[in-house]
Amino acid sequence: MASSAVITPEDVLESLMNDGTIDSLRLKIINQLKANEELKKTTIKMAEQSKVLNTPGAEKQTKRELFDALRQELEPQVLEKASKSVWEIILDNNGLGKEINEIVERVFCRLSGKEPPLFPSADLESQPNGVKDDGKLKQRDGRGEKEVEEVHSSKKRRSADVNPE
To answer: How do beta strands 130-133 and 136-141 pair?
Structure first.
């Protein structure tokens, strides 16, 4: 795409879907969920305390009947906890969340013809032209030093921030 074209979030998403990145990220999220011991413990505890398994006569039901009854009783609570865990994974600025932000920015830059990074990050404080001071990032250029607010990747970016016209 030409650098003068407006790149939409849908353009970035389409590119991520077409190149297999979404599938790769989905697999990483699933693997992190599977490794989440706290989620496993909570789910097991919920099952052990379920009305279905603790009702007299439960031992006479088939596995299928028990499974269906457990699903009906616990599915909403288990899915809510799993959903919260997924959001924690996605928004983790030191793990997969950081990787997602970097991937999206890289794809946006590739599609728009712009050079990354588009936004200053905390990494600038270790670079010679950026010094972090009380939540502000001081950037030095040839003319002096200017203060800019640090951009946190956990905040949503408006399209106007990404594509100034």
So the answer is: antiparallel
Strands (E), the chain: 130-133, 136-141, 144-149
**What would the two tokens of residue 27 be?**
């697999």
Q: How many CA atoms lie within 13 A of 14 on its CB side?
A: 6
Side-by-side strand order, sheet with 130-133: 130-133, 136-141, 144-149
- With a threshold of 0.70, does the pTM exceed it? no
Q: Is the sign of the CA dihedral 144, 124, 24, 86 positive or negative?
A: negative
Which residue from 111, 112, 129 is spatially nearest to 120, judged by alpha carbons?
129
Q: How many residues are recorded in the chain? A: 165
1-23: per-residue pLDDT in tens? Answer: 444 578 999 999 999 999 999 99
Backbone angles phi, psi at 146, to 5 degrees: -130, 150
